[in-house]
Amino acid sequence: MVFRRFVIFLSVLMLALPLAAPEALGQNERPRRSLFEVLFGNDDQPPAQEPVTVQPQPSRTQPSRPVVSQPQSQPQPTDIEKSENATRIAVFGDSLAVDLARALERFYAEDPETVILGQGVGSSGFVRDDFFDWNAALDEEIAEDSFDIAVVMVGINDRQALGGAGPLTEAWKAAYSARIEAFLGDLRAAGKPVVWVELPPMAQPTYSSDMVQISSLHRQAVQASGGEWVETFERFTGEAGGYSEMGPDLSGQIVSMRKSDGIHFSSAGADKLAFYIDRAIGEYHSGGGITTEVADPLAGTDAAGMQRPPFQGLDQAQLVEIAGVVQQIGGAVRRAEDLLVAGSEPKGEFDLEALLEAPAGRVDAFGLGVAAEDIPGGR
Predict the structure, then answer these.
(1) Who's near 132: CB < 8 A, 6+ residues apart?
(2) Mean per-residue pLDDT for 206-228?
(3) What's the pLDDT tens digit per position in 66-104?
């Protein structure tokens, strides 16, 4: 009886509670729950969720930019003690040479046998010797024997009048080339190897074209003096063949190769240039090729006095290039019979008929041209 009264009481109480219509609820209000829902819950009602903050999307009118890998921070040179007999590489030139010297210092930071001497002077060149005379400065360095190898990168300030002649006129080219040749002549007379670096493409087209002409004068003089020429123009151009700020670094990542002025190299660009210069310096210093002594396998035998092709013993030295052994197409083909006794007459070409009619049992008896019944013992 008591239970019936309690159930009736609950029913009346639930009917007395106002029910809020969902349509009347505000956007941020929650619906009221009945006493039954309070006591027993409502499985159909989803749990309340926190409001989701939507990030604003970029405007579609904004121009898209290519995703470019950012250059990594440059490693700081380590404190490696340099050898007393380390090769001293002096970097001469203008502000391009200043950046290049820093890159070479990073490149050879852990090489105790290489020392970089930065000799670059900003705003200098071979035209304004009243500002800085490179020929006189070189003579002083040679007299002091301060370096072993010269690396030169210069020319971005040389588009100026010289001796009354306008830039890049025939008279200007003759006077300018004379100063370059005198500079190279002093290096050659002192026995100092020189590695000359080509000027890269520039952002301003007219200026870039003038730098190409100046580099051509450098190249003619360097090649005539027997120096090493390092090409940079094509290595730092874009797909269209002109100036490009971006390019692959030594790890293959696309980064900024040039500074914002459109003239100088960034740290990554200078490091890449240092890599190419190292290959050119290898002609004179720890690289480029490996000289090995070839052991003579016939030493001490009766065949030691036989005539043999080059680099086959006889205490000869062989230069093994990194790229591998290259044989000229028009070169003479070595035959097995090249190993002859000195003074003997070489045999002529092999007789093709003898090859085809080889007797049975010989390794070259291919069975061509000779019937089986004609061969002794054949069937």
Answers:
(1) 121, 123, 124, 125
(2) 96
(3) 333 334 444 555 578 999 999 999 999 999 999 999 999
Instruction: List alpha helices for the chain, DSSP H.
Output: 2-16, 35-40, 95-107, 134-144, 170-190, 205-225, 267-281, 352-356
Q: Is the pTM of this model over 0.70?
A: no
Distance CA(204)–CA(210), nearest Å, equals: 10
Beta strand residue intervals within the chain, DSSP E: 87-93, 114-118, 149-153, 194-197, 228-230, 246-248, 254-256, 289-293, 317-321
Q: CA-CA distance, 90 to 152, in Å (whole number)?
A: 8
Residue 162 gets the label, from left (phi > 0), alpha (psi -120 to 50) or beta, of: beta
- Measured distance between the N- and C-terminal CA atoms of the chain, rounded to whole angstroms: 126
In the block, residue with structure tokens 């045999």: 347
> Tens digits of per-residue pLDDT, 162-212?
999 999 999 999 999 999 999 999 999 999 999 999 999 999 999 999 999
- Output the CA–CA distances (angstroms, integers) from residue 227 to 14, 181, 289, in the order listed: 105, 11, 18
Dihedral Cα 127, 128, 130, 132, nearest 10 deg: -100
Report the top-level CATH class of 87-287: alpha beta
Bridge partners of 118, per DSSP, are 91
**What tokens appear for 252 in the block?**
């293959």
Q: What is the Cα 173 distance to its own chain's centre?
A: 33
Q: How far apart are CA 359 and CA 365, in angstroms?
A: 6
Q: Which two tokens stand for residue 294?
A: 């070839």
Neighbours of 188 (CB within 10 A): 15
Domain boundaries, the chain: 87-287, 290-346, 349-379
The pLDDT, as a whole number, for residue 370 is: 52
